[in-house]
TrEMBL record:
Keywords: Cell membrane, Membrane, Transmembrane, Transmembrane helix. The lineage of its organism: Bacteria, Pseudomonadati, Pseudomonadota, Gammaproteobacteria, Oceanospirillales. This is UPF0056 membrane protein. Coiled coil: none annotated. It comes from Zooshikella harenae. It holds the Pfam family MarC. It is a multi-pass membrane protein. Belongs to the UPF0056 (MarC) family.
Amino acid sequence: MVDIIESGMLLLALLNPFLLIVYLVGPMKKLDQTQFRQVLIRAGIIAGIVFCCFAVLGDVIFSTIIHAEFASFQMFGGLVFIIIGLQFVFKGPTAIEILQGEAAHISGAIAMPVLIGPGTISASVIIGKRHDPFLACVIVLVAVFASVAIVVLLKTLHDYVQVRRETLIERYIEIVGRITALYVGTVAVEMVMNGIRAWIDKY
């Protein structure tokens, strides 16, 4: 049971709903509670399916299907998040422009790259190695939808508080968004460096 909880917490920590809500500030402001919940659930389903595939198949996906090293995925994922981090620095938390579209079209954008990334995929592979396939999928899905539920709750709290303290909420989101950019950029550079080190170690 301890291993199950630790595995679930590993993925939940990497999904980090309290950081996720900053990424989603654009859709959160534009969509009502029902629309936002539907978008998040669709994104969670997409991410859950991807994570389950990696939990069950693990490194086989990279070595057999994609015919690429996981290090390549780390470097590309890192570059994507470096771009996002730079946009956060200069534009604030509404930087991910692909999330500004219609509700029907942004679930995939939330799933990738907001939910699905090198860190969360790596965690899914680790969970798959620790547990049998069925249990690994259950752990992954519980973690994903726990994160989605927390984000939906934060959206509810945001809507309630914003009516009374709109200026304060706007300032808070702006500050947290730019601080988040430093975290995102640092992690992104680390992803790239880990990928480079993996390639160097291989050769």
